[in-house]
């Protein structure tokens, strides 16, 4: 096959595909656009046109066939229409006959209809006249009702009546004269009602300002009562907790119906305000009235903020704060019940204004106060004001802050007042043991402060181990704690136990302890008084636990928290230190008094010719004084402290005798003088042994009072020894003279002479034993010189 033949076959095949596709698309009512586009793109539009002509011819044949089939049915329909037309003509003739008959009958009825229409016109005119008459009667009736309501001061009802007249009748009144009168009188009536309502409202403003103080006082009293109930409830809860720790108490939890009283209802009349507001709304002056109300109340508030200058603030603060409280209670009621008169922002603005002014006033007044109790009274009332206001939705934060700022000032004033009270109590105390003769005195001065562990009242009269200043000081400390708790309660600090504890520490250290130190170092007390002060300090130091427990109870802190480590008071250590200072001062007083007696030691005859048979006078005085010291201190001082006082006194006596022998006041002394000292010493040692046993110290201590005299005893034994040179023997010295200082022994031995011309007098007048003692002493002196 040639290339040309192949090309012709391809064209023929392409034309056949277009014809088939076009026939298929037309048969299926599909879009032939793609085939047309393809034919033109392939350059064969003739084939397409030829196909379309063939399709048209086929369709024409089909149309002719359809018309031929339906022609007979069309002929039948035309025949049917001709038959219907004949029936219609017959019906038209019948209707014409009926119409003629109807017109003949209706002629008589038309005459009757004209008469009826005329009657309807008369009836309409009479109805319109009656309607006009009813309107006028209704309007005059409403006017009469309005006049009656105005006469009875029922302005709201009168305004409603006027509104009905204006809305429903005024524009429809048929009588022009009546309408003109009403148009003139209604504005005048409204003006009259407005003046009357404003007058009543102004009177209400005066009334509400007067009653506000009573309202505020009632609210603050209610807050105080609620606070008291809360305190009692906490106390009962704390008691129940304590009982539960010891064992369940069936009576610990009980419903106390006495405390279920309903709150006092604060009643005051707001009806004039409501009426005035509603009337002004009806008059279309609601916004003007609200502005008028706000401005007047704001002026009243500013006037209430002016404190009285004719009397002290401490006398005027209650009515001043009660007035403010009542003002805002009224405003709260107005805000909640008188819809739209006040907005929350306006009330909040007034409250902020009042807060700022009260804050300035309180800061100024607190800075000028010089009495802690005045400070506390004002603070308590301000906190009650804050509690009362918080109940009504006002936030008292600025008031709480100004109270917290004045806390340090209050503490200074309270410390100053308590310092004066402590000074008065101490100045009135004779510092003698307190004698209690009545049971109520015991309860008031001992049991109330747990100064005795025994729960049973002892046999009266009871001699207390403390003086009258101890219960007085305890009373002041408890008062300080209570005042501190009262000030810090219901303030900004919720957990104020640690703060009160620090205040208590500060008071005990800076006031109580310093007062004791001033007494101790004042230099005007006797030993018995100093001993009593030491005993008082010891008892108050032990009472610190009671003070801390009392603080915890007032602050609502469980007792178990006090048992934790480091939960005590720093002041306890300070008081213990002051107690030791008192003990040392007691020792100094005893030693000072003993020094006065020991001054007599220098006046005795140190070179007497015969040995004395009795103790020297100074020793008798010393023994009497020591007995008095033990007697006064035995029932007050702890046994350790008593031991320190007595042992210190005996050691001081021993040192004083040695000091006298070493001093220039004793140029020389002989064996007879030493024998006298020996008698004094034996008397003193007897006192030491008796006292050591009678005070019960023998069961506690191994070192007796007699050991305090060891130095002077060994010195006397050495001077009276037949072999004084044995002092140079280390073994014997350690055993018999271990407390002696060789240098002191050397000085004293130089003064130990038996006669003016020689150490032991004339050898012709002395026995062999005295000669041996002399030689032994000479040997000792030489050895001591060599040692030095």
From TrEMBL:
Gene3D superfamilies: Dsl1p vesicle tethering complex, Tip20p subunit, domain D (1.20.58.670), Exocyst complex subunit Sec15 C-terminal domain, N-terminal subdomain (1.10.357.30). Keywords: Coiled coil, Cytoplasm, Exocytosis, Transport. Residues 52-220 form the Exocyst complex component EXOC6/Sec15 N-terminal domain. It is found in: Cytoplasm, Cytosol. Residues 398-751 form the Exocyst complex subunit EXOC6/Sec15 C-terminal domain. GO terms for biological process: acceptance of pollen; Golgi to plasma membrane transport; intracellular protein transport; pollen germination; pollen tube growth; vesicle tethering involved in exocytosis. This is Exocyst complex component. It comes from Eleusine coracana subsp. coracana.
């Amino acid at each position: 096959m040639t290339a040309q033949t192949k090309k012709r076959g391809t064209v023929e095949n392409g034309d056949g595909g277009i014809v088939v596709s076009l026939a298929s698309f037309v048969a299926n009512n599909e879009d032939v656009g793609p085939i047309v586009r393809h034919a033109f793109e392939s350059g064969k539009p003739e084939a397409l046109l030829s196909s379309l002509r063939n399709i048209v011819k086929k369709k024409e044949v089909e149309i002719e066939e359809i018309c031929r089939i339906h022609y007979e049915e069309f002929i039948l329909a035309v025949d049917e229409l001709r038959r219907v037309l004949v029936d219609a003509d017959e019906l038209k003739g019948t209707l014409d006959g009926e119409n003629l008959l109807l017109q003949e009958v209706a002629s008589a009825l038309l005459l009757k209809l004209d008469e009826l229409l005329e009657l309807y016109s008369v009836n309409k005119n009479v109805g319109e006249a009656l309607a006009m008459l009813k309107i006028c009667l209704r309007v005059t009736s409403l006017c009469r009702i309005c006049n009656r309501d105005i006469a009875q001061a029922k302005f709201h009802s009168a305004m409603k009546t006027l509104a009905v007249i204006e809305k429903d009748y005024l524009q429809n009144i048929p009588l022009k004269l009546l309408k003109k009168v009403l148009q003139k009188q209604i504005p005048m009536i409204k003006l009259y009602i407005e003046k009357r309502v404003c007058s009543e409202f102004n009177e209400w403003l005066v009334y509400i300002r007067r009653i506000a103080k009573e309202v505020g006082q009632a609210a603050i009293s209610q807050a105080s009562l609620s606070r008291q109930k809360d305190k009692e409830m906490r106390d009962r809860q704390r008691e129940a907790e304590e009982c539960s720790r010891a064992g369940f108490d069936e009576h610990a939890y009980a419903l106390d119906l006495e405390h279920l009283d309903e709150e006092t209802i604060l009643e005051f009349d707001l009806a004039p305000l409501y009426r005035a507001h509603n009337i002004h709304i009806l008059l279309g002056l609601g916004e003007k009235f609200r502005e008028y109300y706000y401005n007047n109340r704001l002026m009243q508030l500013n006037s209430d903020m002016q404190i009285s200058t004719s009397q002290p603030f401490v006398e005027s603060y209650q009515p001043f704060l009660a007035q403010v409280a009542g003002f805002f209670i009224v405003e709260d009621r107005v805000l909640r019940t008188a819809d739209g008169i006040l907005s929350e922002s306006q009330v909040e603005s007034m409250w902020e204004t009042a807060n700022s002014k009260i804050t300035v006033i309180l800061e100024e007044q607190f800075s000028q106060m010089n009495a802690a109790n005045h400070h506390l009274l004002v603070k308590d009332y301000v906190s009650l004001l804050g509690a009362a206001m918080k109940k009504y939705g006002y936030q008292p934060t600025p008031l709480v802050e100004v109270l917290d700022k004045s806390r340090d000032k209050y503490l200074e004033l309270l410390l100053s007042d308590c310092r004066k009270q402590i000074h008065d109590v101490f100045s009135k105390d004779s510092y003698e043991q307190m004698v209690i003769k009545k049971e109520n005195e015991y309860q008031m001065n001992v049991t109330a402060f747990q100064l005795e562990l025994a729960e049973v009242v002892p046999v009266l009269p009871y001699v207390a181990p403390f003086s009258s200043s101890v219960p007085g000081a305890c009373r002041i400390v408890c008062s300080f704690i209570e005042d501190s708790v009262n000030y810090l309660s219901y303030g900004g600090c919720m957990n104020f136990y640690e703060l009160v504890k620090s205040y208590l520490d500060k008071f005990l250290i800076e006031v109580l302890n310093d007062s004791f130190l001033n007494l101790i170092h004042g230099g005007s007390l006797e030993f018995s008084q100093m001993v009593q002060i030491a005993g008082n300090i010891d008892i108050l130091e032990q009472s610190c636990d009671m003070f801390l427990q009392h603080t915890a109870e007032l602050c609502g802190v469980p007792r178990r928290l006090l048992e934790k480590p480091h939960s005590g008071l720093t002041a306890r250590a300070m008081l213990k230190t002051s107690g030791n200072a008192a003990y040392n001062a007691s020792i100094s007083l005893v030693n000072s008094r003993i020094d006065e007696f020991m001054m007599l030691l220098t006046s005795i005859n140190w070179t007497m010719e015969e040995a004395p048979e009795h103790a020297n006078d100074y020793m008798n005085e010393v023994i009497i004084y020591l007995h008095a010291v033990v007697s006064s201190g035995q029932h007050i001082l702890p046994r350790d402290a008593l031991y320190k006082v007595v042992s210190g006194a005996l050691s001081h006596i021993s040192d004083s005798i040695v000091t006298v022998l070493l001093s220039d006041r004793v140029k020389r002394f002989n064996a007879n003088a030493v024998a006298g000292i020996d008698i004094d010493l034996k008397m003193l040692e007897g006192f030491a042994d008796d006292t050591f046993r009678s005070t019960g110290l023998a069961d506690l201590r191994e070192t007796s009072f007699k050991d305090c005299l060891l130095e002077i005893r060994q010195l006397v034994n050495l001077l009276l020894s037949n072999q004084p040179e044995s002092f140079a023997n280390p073994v014997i010295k350690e055993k018999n003279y271990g407390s002696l200082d060789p240098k002191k022994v050397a000085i004293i031995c130089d003064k130990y002479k038996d006669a003016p011309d020689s150490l032991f007098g004339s050898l012709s007048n002395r026995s062999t034993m005295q000669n041996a003692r002399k030689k032994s002493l000479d040997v000792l002196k030489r050895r001591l010189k060599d040692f030095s």
